[in-house]
Automatic annotation (TrEMBL):
It comes from the Bacteria. This is Amino acid decarboxylase. It comes from Companilactobacillus pabuli. Residues 7-116 form the Prenylated flavin chaperone LpdD-like domain. It holds the Pfam family PAC_bac. The lineage of its organism: Bacteria, Bacillati, Bacillota, Bacilli, Lactobacillales. InterPro entries: LpdD_chaperone-like.
Length: 135
């Protein structure tokens, strides 16, 4: 599933990959999509982010977008969720920076709506009990 939003002359995309009851979500866009941050969460765990270094040694700030989305969808998650984010607009303007938060909010709302309408029927894993061992 994929959602897109365009404002101030650039597009941001959110793509969802379902793995059992878990979600792998990519947020990309602009002139040079990339993976700048990785954000992880579940319905009941704290949001955590790893920020990768950018070309000039500073760290990417794409987690601002991912965390905004994560906070919207967290109560609706069926399992774990990993969000990679990387949006780069060449010579980004103040207006483009300002709308990025609104764009992420829109994508978060789209994902929330999709989660509420989607069935995540997958078999539950079966584990050995404490008294059992593999044969």
């Amino acid at each position: 599933m994929k959602f897109s939003v365009t404002q101030e002359n650039y597009t941001m995309d959110l793509e969802i990959f379902v793995i059992g009851k878990d979600l792998f979500v990519t947020v990309t866009g602009g002139d040079t999509p990339h993976i700048g941050t990785v954000t992880t969460l579940t319905k009941d765990t704290e949001i955590q982010t790893i920020r990768y270094p950018s070309h000039d040694g500073r760290f990417h700030k794409d987690d601002v977008l991912a965390v905004r989305i994560a906070k919207i969808v967290q109560p609706f998650l069926p399992g774990s969720c990993t969000i990679t984010a990387g949006v780069h607009v060449n010579h980004i303007s103040k207006k483009q920076i300002a709308v990025s938060s609104q764009m992420a909010k829109k994508l978060g709302e789209d994902l929330k709506d999709w989660l509420q309408q989607t069935s995540f029927d997958s078999p539950e894993p079966i584990y050995y009990s404490d008294s059992e061992n593999p044969q």
